[in-house]
Write a structure and sequence with these properties.
- The chain is built from 8 helices and no strands.
- The chain is an all-alpha fold.
- α1 runs antiparallel to α3.
- The relative contact order is 0.13.
- The mean pLDDT is 90.
- Keywords: Membrane, Transmembrane, Transmembrane helix.
- InterPro entries: CWH43_N, DRAM/TMEM150_Autophagy_Mod.
Length: 267
């Protein structure tokens, strides 16, 4: 259920601020940048809160995925080779760092520190893409495969969509590919405000391609996390154990224990 909650929280973190931002006239209704949807109050508060919750749930999902791989190939099948475990652990670290940059993206709103916000967002996009491809390669490389062939091919398709839209996003944002001749990338306004670009603007195509690619990339990444729930539905997690140190094993009896031994009634 954790990957499902990650998906629902992640989708909510982009669509709820979008609806509020459009209703308040803060962003255009036709494909704004995701960061623009969380730029102004009150939607920026909801954007930050939901994004932080998504990062936390993503960390748990990534950890459960790693433990599932270890349990299946290490404890159940007892594979003697450990290369798959090292790769899975490396992907665990990459996923954790990606989640950190997601929280950093929320912590530095684009209206307050546009450069830091963009760097953190790009870092999270790139690291999530690396994590997804690592999981796809691991799924096809280790035998027997933990997931069914249909699920593995769906994940490969999502990885291709996410990577393709990421490349398209970078090309649209940082090159003149989608600009008319004689136009260059406009500088970011300081302080930053959400962009309202009409269809008659020479920058409209660039904006539409970049924003559309960003939405498609983020949604495909969340759907990829959702696919983990199909594997994890065959597993369960026990509560962690708490152990006392030996120095605390011998302790004085409590007042309640004294009362029980003395047959004294306590209200």
């Amino acid at each position: 259920i954790i990957p499902l909650l990650t998906f629902l929280c992640g989708i909510s973190s982009i669509f709820i601020p979008y609806v509020i931002g459009v209703s308040n006239g803060h962003v255009p209704s036709v494909i704004p940048f995701i960061s623009d949807c969380g730029a102004l109050a009150p939607e920026n508060c909801i954007f930050t809160q939901l994004l932080n919750m998504t990062a936390l749930l993503l960390i748990i999902s990534i950890y459960l995925r790693h433990r599932q791989i270890v349990e299946y190939y290490g404890n159940r099948l007892r594979r003697p080779d450990l290369w798959w475990r090292k790769i899975s652990f490396g992907l665990l670290i990459i996923g954790f760092i990606a989640a950190f940059f997601i929280t950093a993206t929320a912590a530095f709103p684009i209206t307050e520190n546009v450069k830091v916000h963009i760097v953190c967002a790009m870092a999270s996009f790139l690291l999530v893409t690396v994590y997804i491809w690592g999981q796809v390669i691991l799924s096809f490389s280790v035998s027997p495969r933990m997931s069914g062939p249909f699920l593995n091919w769906i994940r490969l398709l999502l990885a291709l969509i996410g990577t393709g839209t990421l490349v398209l996003y970078i090309v649209a944002c940082y090159t003149n590919t989608f600009l008319p001749d004689g136009y260059s990338i406009p500088p970011l306004p300081i302080p930053y405000t959400p962009e309202f670009i009409g269809a008659d603007s020479p920058y409209w195509l660039r904006h539409t391609v970049a924003a559309g690619a960003e939405w498609a990339m983020v949604i495909s990444n969340f759907v990829f996390v959702l696919t983990m729930s199909f594997d994890l539905r065959h597993t369960y997690v026990r509560p962690p154990k708490v152990f006392f140190k030996k120095t605390h094993l011998r302790r004085p009896r409590s007042a309640y224990e004294h009362a029980l031994n003395d047959d004294t009634h306590i209200d």
